[in-house]
Design goal:
This protein is of the alpha/beta class.
Amino acid sequence: MRFIDEFRDPALARRLLGEIEAMTADWPAERPITLMEFCGGHTHAIMQHGIRQLLPPTVRLLSGPGCPVCVTSQADIDRAIALVHVPKAILTTFGDMVRVPGTTHSLQEAAAEGLDVRIVYSPLDAVQLAAEQPEREVVFLGVGFETTAPGIAASIQAAMARGLRNYSVFSMHKYTPPAMRAILDAGEVRLDGIIGPGHVTAIIGYEAWSFLPKEYGVPVVVAGFEPLDILLTIHHLVAQVVKGEARVENTYRRAVSAEGNRAALAVMDAVFEVADADWRGLGILPRSGMAIRADYADYDAARRFRIPDVPSREPPGCRCGDVLRGVIEPPQCPLFARVCTPDHPRGPCMVSDEGACSAYYLYGGFAA
């Protein structure tokens, strides 16, 4: 318990903040040390606990593309929604996807029209549903990063082991490192350091981020989700930047190792193969997606069903893609808190529990 207690210690928070301010005392305020938190969970923790406001003006935080629902392209969302029209289909998904606006409607609106859309807490719940209703086609919308992909891969293996022929997955999963590479290659934002995603890195291991300091000279420190986890990570990053160093560090040692979770990686690699993927705001990134392998083709909704090509368009005026790249902050979007709110979202960044717009709205003084 002592370790956890230390990460809720106000005295430690004051010391870390004081040291961050001291380290950057001579740093030019007009060119602040700019750090990007990749993970949407980190964005919400940072906003909820006012960490941006606690930092000196010499340190700036930007939000990145760490919300899997948010980075799902409009075309993929439209294709996923179209699956609800498969004959005898039950479309199952995690809660966030239900409210994401498609080009013409959302899954929530499809359900209101009488189509069968169900929220499940685990893909194994969808497998059980397929077992209980063998006359129906149960399709699970697989959205997520390396964190959720192993569980969804395991659901496919479980369906195969049970001999179920009416369960399939529409895979929109993505690998996270290519997105960070794409942001740095684009050069739209100058980044001095990366707050590494805790949950993702628990799966892939912190060595997966070693290309950032080696190829780009940008340090990475993997963070947990307690407020002092994040402050400690910012402290380590600022120390590296001030000293002109660049390496991978791990402050989330209670959950993250160098090699990651080998069992989770094994099941994920058994079911998925690397493919190109379309990211909102980033476009098609090579080798950034997870396609279902041919050995499991019977459980691949993209192969099993004819999915119509729906003309897709971004929500008019929505700048979610720019938010995901760190080009703007959510309040700079003309729709933010005006016509786009959590109750009436125009874009996915306001829908998801990991979306940056949702975090800014909930904790930035915009909520009523």
